[in-house]
Amino acid sequence: MTEKNIYALIAEFDSVSSIMQAAEQVRDEGYVIWDVHSPMPIHGINQAMGLRPTILPWITLAHGLVGAAFGLGLTWWMNATTVPGLSPSVQGYEFLISGKPTFSLPANIPIIFETTILFAAIVTLLGMLGLNKLPMLHNPLNKNKRFLRATTDRFFIVIEAEDQQFDATKTSDFLQSMGPLAIEVVTED
Amino acid sequence: MTPKFLSFPSKLIQILTGGAIVGALLSLIGAVAYSGGGRRVMLAYLVAFAFVLSLSLGSLFFVLVQHLMRAGWGVLVRRPAEIFSLNIVTVALLFIPIAWSALGGSGQLYPWAKRDTNETAHDATPVTFKTPTALAATATLEQPLPGDQHESHDIHDSLYSHQTVDELTRSKQGWLNPTAFILRGIAFFGTWSLIAWFYFSRSRHQDSARGDDDTRQMEWWAGVCMFAFGITLTYAAFDFLMSIDPHWYSTIYGVYYFAGCAVGGFSINLLAILLLQRLDLFPVSLSDEHRRDLGRLLFAFVFFWGYIAFSQYMLLWYANVPETTRWFVVRGASMAEGYTNSWGYLLVFLLLGHFVIPFLGIMSRHVKTSKKAMIFWTSWLLVMHYLDLYWLVMPELGPHLTVGLPEIGTLLFTVCVYLLGASLIATRTSPIPTGDPRLAASLAITDAY
Questions:
Q1: ipTM of the complex
Q2: Are B446 and A44 a contacting pair at CB < 8 A?
Q3: Which residues of B touch A104 (CB under 8 A)?
Q4: What residues of A are in contact with residue B325 (Cβ under 8 Å)?
Q5: CA distances (Å), A132 to each of A120, A156, B86, B172, B295, in order?
Q6: What integer is the mean pLDDT of B373-381?
Q7: Preceding omega of A135 cis (within 30 degrees of 0)
Q8: Are the C-beta atoms of B135 and B328 separated by less than 8 Å?
Q9: Which of B51, B108, B237, B249 could join B39 via S-S bond, C-beta 3.0 to 4.6 A?
């Protein structure tokens, strides 16, 4: 029977203040691929973990602008174009509506607004999923009995073996120095 | 060491008093020196009055919505809004000249208030809509009038014909008459003062009484008060501002004024807090998150204003009915030949300055958390909000954009009187609600995303 690869080391804590202190230490030690699991949101954990601000707002802004351009192009093409020589099935409909010019911006702004929101909202959702590497159907942590309490009353620090600084004994000693309730090795399966 | 209670140097009081006197003098000089100055000063005064009124109403909305939503984050920043909303009593005093004008029968401010001289000749003055449809830019499709100087002058004359009492105006005098106007004004200011006084005094009572009894009472009444606030604000906007053109109506007008109230009210609260901090008069330091939350609220209502302004425009533009497009034509929205006027520049400036530029400007979180940047943007939005009201009212004077002594004088007068009232209310008041049970939780917010 071959030895299973180590997936991560987990350390269990029982209070917000201890997990905050531990997170700051792990951050200062220079670990990159690690995470904090908690049953509820903790104010200030982002700074304690040294997380950089997300780039998601820029993705949203960019696609909002793309949506606006799409809406503008759509309404212009549909309402105000006749291209000679093009098949009638892709021509615009130049209808005269209550004496307005065929391309009237006020009438088109609701469409442009909607496509802006539509593009921005959909890409924000997809971008959030992508940046979080979701959907992730399985994670070795899910099989760990101890880790189940992360959804009720325990706080966990998980340092993954993938991290360049990870070393089974050194990292274990480092976690031990912070006084957790328990430390456990989680293996790949 | 910051003082426990707010107190302002007597020099500030002197400056504000001096400003009010200078403003009043400038307005008087304006009324005498300009031709038609009386009417112009009254309209400019209405703009300035609506401006300070909106600051108090926006603050009142902030206080109410905080209690309605049982919001904990805003406890720390609620007191300045309570002070500004109670300052509605000062605005009530400023309402007296407007009530006086409505009673006077000259019709300078409100054409419907003009004493009807040809009462007997009702049928002799039928409604005439000489105003052709002109909002659509399709001058070629429907242009009966070549735009030579003489004829375009005639167009402008016909646009202002509602200023004499005609059949249509007379038909509305069951609602729009001086007595009803003043009774409604008293009801509006009574409601607002009562609500503002209730929230201010409860909150001050809690400073010493502690406990959560006051909080529960304030939350219990918030729903009822919000209803009263919404209805009174809508009808006040109809009465005070929309009725300067008694022919025209727009059901979204109250919401439009409310959007301006929110922008103005949130701006002056954030500005007041930032300035108090700068002068070391605010006892605790606001975290980035508080400034960011207030900035976000302001940002949302900058967009809301744009949304509502466009909604009003689009429906009237689409329908293109002469009676209703007149309002926009007079305000410079028409590009049809012979109908353009210089208010169009202000209109475009508002579109950019009240919506596009601040929308992009306040979007970033780095801007929202920067004190200097937010001092700039709140001041900018206050100026834009004044110009917005200016654009609502002043085009009734005629087709030429005007700025002069009457406008500057009335604005100086009302703003100085308003700030004087606010500083009197604020004196001997703690700048934060020290007795609120959730103050500690509000202070502790460090990371709100």
A1: 0.77
A2: yes
A3: 136-137
A4: none
A5: 18, 19, 48, 62, 28
A6: 96
A7: yes
A8: yes
A9: B108
- Choose, out of B142, B316, B447, the residue to mutate when testing the contact with A (most A CBs < 10 Å): B447
Closest to B301 in 3D by CA, of B59, B75, B91, B52:
B59
pLDDT higher than 90, residue A86: no
Q: Give the integer Cα–Cα distance in Å for A5 and B198.
A: 67
Distance from CA of B318 to the nearest CA of A (A): 8
Contact B320 A98 (CB under 8 A): yes
The tokens describing B445, both together, are: 């917010």
Distance CA A28, CA A36 (A): 15
The CATH code that applies to domain A6-53+136-187 is: 3.30.70
Q: Where are the beta strands (DSSP E) in chain A?
A: 6-13, 34-37, 155-160, 182-187
- Tell me if B21 sits within 8 A of B412, measured CB to CB: no
Query: Strands A155-160 and A34-37: what pairing?
Result: antiparallel
How far, in Å, CA of A106 to CA of B314, rounded? Answer: 6
**Which tens digit of pLDDT belongs to each residue from A52-69?**
888 999 999 999 999 999
In terms of Cα–Cα distance, which of B171, B349, B328, B172 is closest to B256? B328
| DSSP at B2 | -
Which is nearest to B331 in space by CA: B241, B260, B240, B239?
B241
Whole-angstrom Cα distance, residue B215 to residue B256? 31
- Token pair of B161 as six digits: 């014909």
**Is A109 an 8 Å CB contact of chain B?**
yes
For every residue of B139-205, which 3-state class applies, written as one string? CCCCCCCCCCHHHHHHHHHHHCHHHCCCHHHHHCCCCCCHHHHHHHHHHHHHHHHHHHHHHHHHHHH
B142 to A47: CB separation less than 8 angstroms, yes or no: no
Burial of B32 (0-12, 13-18, 19+ CB in 10 A): exposed
Q: Is A89 left (phi over 0), alpha (psi -120 to 50) or beta?
A: alpha
- Report how many domains make up chain B: 1
Rounded CA-CA distance B67/A166 in Å is 50
Q: Please state, in angstroms and rounded to a whole number, the distance separating the CA atoms of residues A13 and A130.
A: 30
CA B354 to CA B385: how far, in whole Å?
Answer: 7
With respect to residue B156, please indicate whether it lies within any of the assigned structural domains.
no
Classify residue B167: in a domain, yes or no: no
Which letter does DSSP use for residue A87 in this model? -
- Diameter of chain A measured on Cα atoms: 83
Identify whether the C-beta of residue A161 lies closer than 8 Å to the C-beta of residue A5: yes
Q: Where are the domains of chain A?
A: 6-53+136-187, 56-131
Biggest alpha carbon–alpha carbon distance for chain B = 74
What is the DSSP secondary-structure string of A116-141? HHHHHHHHHHHHHHHHTT------GG
Q: In which domain, by residue range, is B391 found?
A: 10-118+184-443
- With beta carbons less than 8 A apart as the criterion, state whether A115 and A70 touch: yes
Tokens 């993938």 found at: A162
pLDDT in tens, B310-364: 999 999 998 888 888 889 999 988 888 888 889 999 999 999 999 999 999 999 8
Q: Identify the residue whose tokens are 């609220």.
A: B297
Give the phi and the psi of residue A50 in degrees, each rounded to 5. Answer: 70, 35
**In a domain? residue B165:** no
> Is B170 within a domain?
no
What tokens appear for A1 in the block?
């029977």
pTM, full prediction = 0.86
Distance CA B336, CA A5 (A): 77
